[in-house]
Amino acid sequence: MELGIAGKNAIVCASSKGLGKACALALAREGVNVLICGRTVATLERAAEEIRAAGDGKVQAVQADVTQNEGRDRLLTACPAPDILVNNAGGPPPGDFRDWRQEEWFKALNANMYSAIDLIRRCLDGMVERRFGRIVNITSIGVKMPVPNLGLSNGARSGLCGFVAGIAREPAEHNVTINNLLPGYIATDRMWQVVENAAQSSGQDKEPFQQAMFGRIGAKRPGEPEEFAAVCAFLCSARASYVTGQNLLVDGGLYPGTF
Questions:
Q1: For residues 53 and 56, what is the distance between their CA atoms, to the nearest angstrom?
Q2: How confident is the model at residue 8 (pLDDT cuts 50, 70, 90)?
């Protein structure tokens, strides 16, 4: 399918590795000019080279922390009129909610709720004026299927989805869409860390724990970042103009619900 976004400009947040990098790569392969960002220069430069080698669009790398106002300023200075915005940020650590105080909650809310909202605020009106815009927020299956020891993530990401539900309909008439992508177990460094922590917390050996956990997934395996990124690229495309305000699961059939 021709996605109709060659030559468009995209900001992909937290994209030096993991899901962000996979999404940037998928967009670049469609001819999109992508701006990637990360906090570590060496990792960011390696990602940029990989994306340049594989894609048709231009690649710009900006060292920036999207959870900080200064970092978001740097992104929009480098790409002041994005057609596509993919919001993403690293998740907060697991733990027991009894141990979290205001500092931990504010940090999680800033990283996984407010930083995305602020970038939407800065980009949305320009997209409306240009009559094209695609905003995709990478959240988590925890929005629909909360994980007990990931309460910081569950709360912050659910807050973002609730906010998006309130604003996504109005710009749709101007060909601007806002959607949330909810990954399940996708094989990234972050996922393996979560799995290892869960195995340790349960007192089980890692391999049988993983087998049991992945056995609950319809596909019986974790997803590949490229599979997740393909869905992101479609939502960013001209072909997805009639999809907005949605929470789309990419989980291999893990979530058992109807709605």
A1: 8
A2: very high
